[in-house]
User: Fold SIS domain-containing protein from Thalassovita mangrovi.
Amino acid sequence: MTELSSIEDRIAARYSDLSGQLQKAADYVAANPMDVASRSLRAVSSGSGLSPATYSRLARALGFDTYEEMRELCREAVGQHVPSFSEKAERLGDDGGTGKSVFQRQTEACIANIATLQAQVTEDKLTRAVEALARARNVVLFGAFGSTGIVEYLAYLANYCTSNWTLAGRMGASLGSALSVMNDKDVLFIVTKSPYARRAIIAAQMAQDLGATTIIITDSHSCPALKYADVPFIVPSESPQFFSSYTATLALLESLMAMLVACDPKGTSLRIRDVETRNSGLGEFWSE
Assistant:
């Protein structure tokens, strides 16, 4: 497991191993870093209905020597917070008497998600993901339910740039067959959001057991697949609608693809040019 740089990363990496009571405390810390950073342990305990001792045990379970060390990391998270956007996102469940349309509330949620993503994701984590993708023998993509179309779009972009990316679980490409030939030279890239696809979680575990690098994009520290992630991304997905928003996820995926192309711009350009030539020869696109 790589170095964990944020309180949410720490919680995500260890969440599935926590007891039920410690998971409740972790949920509270992840949802209320401002309270943990600025209020006393007694006040946090009172506000959450959990004992001070539970938070001390949580701190140790997350790898801190003391509760104060966990609190300090929460202070750093608060420093990265974007209050105006996040507060706006919290009010999107209803119009709050503002009379804003569904379109206005939805677009504001998307803007808030992207702003939060930008504030929270580190360049180091982006670089680690891109370096793993660049050196991989093969990259296997998997997404189910709402994430299916997202990974199909990523596969479409990737196939312009490289020939070693495979979309598993679609169009006759079995997820099991893709996993069967993976080793420590390969990458499994999963996108999964609540409710989490069972196959995504099991595939992440299998890939880790095979020594492959796992990149997981999800929406919460409680996602079970994060336990098996080498490079985890928790992407804001808030929406006033009944579904999760993928706007920030798309921004992350497109950024990763752009960074990957930038690793070898000349070689990638030649590959894209060749694909475009063959598409033209096949008459794939409309032209006057």
